[in-house]
Amino acid sequence: MTDRTRTDTGHVDAHVDEAYLDACADAWQVTGDLAQSILDTLDPEAVNPTDEHRRHCVAWLRRAAERRTLPRTTPVLDPSAGSHAPTVDLLRHAAGAYPGFLDGTSSGRKILLAGPGMRLWHGYFQSDNLLYRPLNAAAAAAVENTLRTGGGTRILEVGAGTGGATAHLLAHWPDDLRGTYDYTVTDMSASLLVGARRRHSGNTPAPVRLEFRRFDFDLADDQGLAPHGYDVVLAVNALHIAADIPSTLRHLRSLVRPGGALVLSESLCATGDHVHQEFIFNLLPLSADACRRGSRFHPAAAWRAYFDTAGIDAQIQVNSAGPELVMVAVAAGAGTP
């Protein structure tokens, strides 16, 4: 199939600075050390040889331990200090849970999404975490550009999770955008929506009216959302887990009015590579396809193929430097040239 997308670095490079690159290097240093410490005490007999997910996790730990460090622009700082603390705290929490997870006595969801793990999860996904700031900032810039050039006042965010991207967009809302904006924040998890509502209550720019509702982007029906009813449909680091990415892209684009845009921001995994966040996310359910690929994230070429399969023209921007990549894709709403 002919490649329908256009790829360049565009404005994404403006959000990938030395602080982000150094944060990646620090995170990999901690991740590699923790992976090695787990392997040092791992009893191979404790891992069920027929469990594809857990065998994938062990293989991932071995690759991470071999990788250990990445080139960096400045000497390594104390990774537990300041802005690094939320990342390091969650990495260490995950590391402590790996033995029980690998021998099948612990559930990844209970480890990460309950009690202390859930508190660390929220801290890790805060909007000012250096490791997610480029994703959030690039997405916010694409949303702002769409609102300025295409007009409109209705925004739908899907897969919002703990609301890190939501918080970034609201915190950097342009003062000169006139009118009233309806911003619908959705996720399939009711508990995450409760946390997001509590977080943003009373902390919203005056022109923005927030609504929170459940929406599962893996379901084919509109779940009460109006087709062609939104000027911007936004998804930040969410769609890589979709069961059928091309189908989900088509579905979300059908919610965009002509003249609007589908804005997608994602962490990328270069072909044959992996990203440090998987040390944490590997504790959660993993599809057989992700196990075969070696990552739950996707390379830029795969995202181009997904858009092509969906029959959607998109402009895909990828940063030109950095060990872990940031992608923003913008696709015009249905019915536009």
Beta-strand content bin: 15-25%
Distance from first to last alpha carbon = 20 Å
What is the spatial order of strands in the main beta sheet? 1-7-8-6-5-2-3-4
DSSP strand tally: 8
Which helices and strands occur, and which strands form pairs?
Layout: E1 6-8, H1 18-41, H2 52-67, H3 85-102, H4 108-112, H5 115-124, H6 133-150, E2 154-158, H7 164-171, E3 181-187, H8 190-200, E4 208-214, E5 230-236, H9 245-253, E6 256-268, H10 278-281, H11 288-293, H12 300-310, E7 315-318, E8 325-332
Parallel strand pairs: 1-7, 2-3, 2-5, 3-4, 5-6
Antiparallel strand pairs: 6-8, 7-8
Would you kindly provide a brief summary of this structure?
By secondary structure, the chain is an alpha/beta fold. 42% of the residues lie in helices and 16% in strands. An eight-stranded mixed β-sheet has the order 1-7-8-6-5-2-3-4, covered by helices on one side.
